[in-house]
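Translate structure to sequence.
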């Protein structure tokens, strides 16, 4: 316990990321141990072969993808949850009560009704998938659960910037990825509302039935927010399900200055988001909210004698989470979320959002003030995409890999209008302005030498 507390306290002193040496990688191909080893030896193995080689997203100079930094309260909650080893698939116990409170807090945070249903899942990939199944149920009813979707010509709509997991969800739900119509972006990297309207009309004329509109609140590439109010209105007019992928953007609701970006989310039929990103809960902690509890339950519930709920006793307490999602056995994921939210409060988490966005603006300013760096997308939130004047895509990829392998910084990359961009997603509550300045200075030094 002491080691892990000191580990978190001393993150700055270590590298962001260390590549596994070949002998360490190789050591994980050893066979299943026949006999056990002493706890002290096991801990020594952990220290030597595991702890040094993790992703690095706890580090204040990790800017890659959209990774949360975690927090010490959540770490301790995982220990407590492990000791209780509760199975939160169902039954009448406190694990379910804690999860329901977390869901109620999440619904209130986003302005959804108090009766909103929900379930905690691994992450937004699963939450988006489960939301899409709810939309499928709304469109096709029980028949789709029993017989599949048959030859229903259902179509869904999202922007070209939609996360790949929504495409994957269309595939997994049996619609096929092509049934997701990817609508072009406007100049602010948001869904083009007029193009969406046109595509829906064209599809109807061609005999398709639009059943789902997905808005993105914080796109993975650039952090752009679709106009959720406009999407909700179109969805109501077109009688489709309105889902919002707010994987990291949902937490903007806790920041008074950024909450307006989410205007309209309260009217969504479903929302997917993560506590493991901006809320700094340790992985994994995804959340699905569904406005109509009856549709949510009808999408997943099954009746089996060995899992029948009872009016009293331990088998009481319906509805059970196993009837609100695909998992039967589930850990006490809610505890680390509940403890994080209780320990720090909504205001402090809103400040994390504000700080990250202020740092992103600072990075954008440094880029604008440099004649070597170029901003490649507007900075609407906490993601900054930039390039280096005169650098090829391969040179940019090499530079990012060099920074990572040196253990100095971990930005990631993406493609903006055909150009490879260095992408800094500022999510970690430990990141400070000097970390951003150090990133820019290091890139300027390295590119001056190129
Ligand atoms: C906009 C968006 N949607 C969905 C996801 C997938 O979330 P998860 O990694 O929690 O499955 C991400 C991940 O970064 C994301 O940024």
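Result:
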């Amino acid at each position: 316990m002491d080691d892990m507390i000191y580990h978190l306290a001393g993150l700055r002193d270590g590298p962001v990321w260390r590549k596994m040496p070949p002998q360490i990688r190789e050591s994980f191909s050893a066979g299943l141990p026949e006999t056990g080893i002493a706890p002290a030896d096991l801990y020594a193995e952990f220290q030597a072969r595991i702890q040094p080689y993790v992703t690095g997203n706890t580090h204040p100079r990790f800017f890659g993808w959209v990774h949360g930094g975690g927090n010490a309260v959540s770490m301790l909650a995982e220990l407590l949850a492990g000791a209780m080893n509760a199975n939160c698939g169902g039954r009448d116990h406190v694990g379910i009560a804690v999860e329901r409170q977390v869901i109620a807090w999440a619904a209130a945070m986003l302005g959804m009704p108090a009766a909103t249903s929900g379930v905690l899942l691994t992450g937004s990939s699963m939450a988006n998938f489960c939301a899409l199944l709810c939309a499928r149920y709304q469109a096709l009813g029980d028949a789709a659960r029993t017989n599949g979707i048959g030859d229903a010509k259902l179509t869904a709509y999202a922007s070209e910037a939609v996360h790949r997991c929504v495409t994957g969800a269309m595939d997994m739900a049996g619609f096929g990825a092509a049934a997701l119509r990817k609508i072009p972006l406007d100049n602010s990297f948001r869904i083009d509302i007029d193009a969406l309207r046109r595509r829906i009309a064209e599809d109807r004329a061609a005999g398709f039935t639009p059943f789902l509109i997905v808005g993105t609140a914080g796109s993975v590439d650039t952090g752009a927010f679709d106009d959720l109010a406009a999407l909700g209105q179109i969805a109501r007019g077109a009688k489709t399900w309105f889902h919002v992928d707010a994987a990291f953007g949902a937490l903007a609701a806790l920041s008074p200055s950024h909450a307006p970006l989410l205007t309209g989310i309260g009217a969504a039929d479903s929302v997917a988001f993560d506590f493991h990103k901006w809320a700094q809960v340790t992985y994994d902690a995804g959340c699905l909210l569904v406005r109509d509890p009856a549709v949510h339950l009808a999408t997943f519930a099954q009746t089996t004698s060995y899992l029948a709920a009872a009016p009293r006793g331990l088998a009481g307490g319906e509805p059970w989470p196993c009837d609100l999602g695909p998992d039967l056995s589930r850990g006490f994921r809610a505890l680390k979320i509940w403890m994080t939210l209780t320990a720090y409060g909504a205001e402090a988490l809103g400040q994390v959002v504000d700080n990250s966005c202020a740092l992103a603006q600072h990075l954008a300013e440094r880029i604008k003030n440099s004649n070597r760096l170029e901003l490649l997308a507007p900075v609407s939130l906490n993601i900054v995409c930039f390039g280096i004047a005169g650098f090829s895509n391969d040179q940019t990829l090499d530079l990012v890999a060099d920074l990572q392998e040196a253990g100095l910084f971990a930005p990631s990359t993406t493609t903006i209008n055909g150009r490879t961009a260095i992408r800094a997603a500022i999510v970690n509550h430990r990141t400070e302005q000097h970390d951003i300045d150090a990133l820019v200075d290091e890139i300027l030094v390295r590119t001056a030498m190129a």
